[in-house]
Specification:
Elements: H1 2-50, H2 53-76, H3 82-103, H4 105-118, H5 133-178, H6 184-209, E1 219-221, H7 223-230, E2 235-239, E3 246-248, H8 250-267, E4 275-282, E5 285-292, H9 314-319, H10 326-336, E6 342-345, E7 350-356
Parallel strand pairs: 2-4
Antiparallel strand pairs: 1-3, 4-5, 5-7, 6-7
Length: 357
């Protein structure tokens, strides 16, 4: 009987030990899981705080309030002198200002990027410093610029292909028109075909110059000699002696001169004076200006001059043969050479100028 009770007692002790061991293992597993969940939650909140401008701003303001309160409390209790408290407050405010300024630094990069996009510099990319809300905004801006640039490149390629394909049927149409019996109809048809040819050539050149500086074939060029060879006797020249050689694309500069001088001759009032082409030294470069003595353009139209197909007086310009692409081409040539076409009323007349260098 006693032996049986001893066996039962040892069995109960073994079961108790196994239960205790099981409880200890369960407790250990629970603590490990709890610690793991706490670490995951901490890392998640830390990442949210790190990637949130609002949370970091709140932390800065809370820190500023706590430190400011402690400094004021110390000053009231006499533990800190008034001057020391003032200096500490200024130091805390300065640190908070520096932290906020550093935090909002991406906004300045965003503003510069938006201005560059507005100027048409779609290859500009915004640098972002953190993967927070501002970094995400900068990334979306860059993606938008890349998409727009790809769309414009596709449109440019399509327009180039269409313009190129239109030249062959236009040439055949002109040959057929030459076979028509002489008369007003023939002259009118040839004139219309010539305008279409000029328009297609202008479109082709515009799209080629859309590539900017890379579209140019640069070489050392004597701009004064180029101007003398490009303009007719009806144009007055004022060329400063001793001008330096410039790295230019002579064909594109001739195109620019042809358009500017052609515009000036169309609108010039010979009674007031001849069309004047001048070259003068401007720093390390040369300033090229073409001026007429006509009525000029309305002041409200100046800001739109140089836009494709824009004419201040559409009906008059069409009768005079303009298609509204001449100044736009000149603007593209100037930009491709790293310059800017300046258009202004010269009182009397109108002046177009750019600085090459």
């Amino acid at each position: 009987m006693r032996a049986e009770r001893a066996l039962q007692h040892r069995a109960m002790k073994r079961r108790f030990k196994r239960r205790m061991e099981l409880n200890r293992k369960r407790s250990l597993m629970w603590r490990l899981r709890a610690r793991q969940r706490w670490h995951e939650r901490w890392h998640r909140h830390h990442a949210q705080f790190k990637h949130s401008v609002g949370a970091r701003l709140i932390a800065v303001f809370v820190s500023l309030a706590v430190l400011g309160g402690l400094i004021l409390y110390g000053a009231q209790e006499g533990q800190v002198g008034a001057w020391t408290a003032g200096a500490l407050l200024l130091l805390v405010i300065g640190l908070a200002f520096g932290a906020i300024r550093r935090m909002l630094r991406p906004l300045r990069a965003l503003a510069a990027g938006v201005e560059a996009f507005g100027r048409g510099e779609l290859d500009h990319r915004i640098r972002y410093f953190h993967r927070d809300e501002l970094g995400d905004l900068a990334h979306r801006f860059n993606q938008m610029a890349a998409d727009i640039q790809a769309m414009l490149d596709g449109k440019r390629a399509l327009l180039l292909a269409m313009s190129h394909e239109l030249r062959s049927p236009l040439t055949r149409a002109r040959l057929h028109a030459e076979l028509i019996e002489d008369g007003d109809s023939k002259q009118g048809l040839l004139k219309e075909l010539a305008e279409m040819r000029d328009l297609i050539q202008a479109l082709l050149e515009s799209e080629r110059l859309g590539g900017g500086h890379s579209a140019l074939q640069l070489r050392d060029c004597d701009l004064a000699a180029l101007v003398r060879d490009s303009v007719g006797e009806e144009v007055a020249l004022r060329i400063e002696p001793g001008l330096p050689l410039l790295r230019l694309d002579p064909m594109r500069i001739q195109l620019l001169l042809r358009n500017l001088v052609g515009n000036a001759l169309r609108h010039n009032d010979a009674a007031q004076g001849p069309v004047l082409v001048s070259l003068s030294r401007a720093g390390q470069g040369v300033r090229l200006a073409v001026r007429d003595h006509g009525p000029g353009v309305p002041p409200e139209a100046l800001s739109q001059l140089g836009e494709p197909f824009y004419r201040p007086d559409a009906a008059r310009s069409r009768n005079e043969g303009g298609v509204g692409l001449g100044l736009s081409l000149c603007k593209l040539v100037a930009v491709a050479h790293g310059s800017r076409l300046e258009l202004r009323n010269a009182d009397p007349g109108f002046e177009a100028a750019l600085t090459l260098g």
